[in-house]
Amino acid sequence: MSLPLCRVRRALVILVPAPAAAAIFLLSFRWSPAALLPFLLAAPLFPVFASAVRRGDDRSALSSVLVWAVALILCATAVSMLWQPEAEAAILRSRQYAEESVQWVRTGEGPEGSPALFLPRHALVFALFSLVSVATGGLGALVLGAAQLNYMSYYVASLCRLGGGVPAVLVLGWPPWALVRVVSYIALGTALARPLLARIPPRPEPAHPICWPLLWAGLGGVLLDAVLKTVLAAPWRRLLLAVLGGTP
Asked: pTM for the complete prediction?
């Protein structure tokens, strides 16, 4: 196969899971149990992700998950804005997370603005995500990621319904620490998936050990997420409140 055709094939393999997951979301959110939806959304991505990880192609693995994540964010946000009751029923933790986060935006009260409250929660999520990534070869990590992206998108849609300019709210609803968290956990999940995937027959030749630079990048991003949230949460909240038409 010629080099241009190889590149086209590689690009298609990376891109296809994203529209497939978006289609699954649109076709199933009205009837799928909330606990099942994240598994359905991870299904078209995992074969592509696992294949790339097994052959040591971290670039393709990371790219496929990033494109998939963007597609889920766009799809879940649009569905949550257009069909709010159905989205609330379909997305795990949708109402709980949105109410807690909107309450913080309005009053400054709640775990989102208190390191003493959100750091232990972050540590628990990190430990669970890491354990699931290693134990399932990344499949569980993709499921957890789909669930988190869904309820965060529902929260952003909830902000849009409060008022203000929708484009500005859509941008500010995803603060920089949340974006860092998404990318960091993608890197972390990719690195931690390899030990198990490399053991599944037929074993890839040559064997690809864990990618330490990728693992360290993920760990660094998790720490940066905590630092940015600690430093920026209060001023970001005031900015978001001003855009929503409240008093900062």
From this structure: 0.92
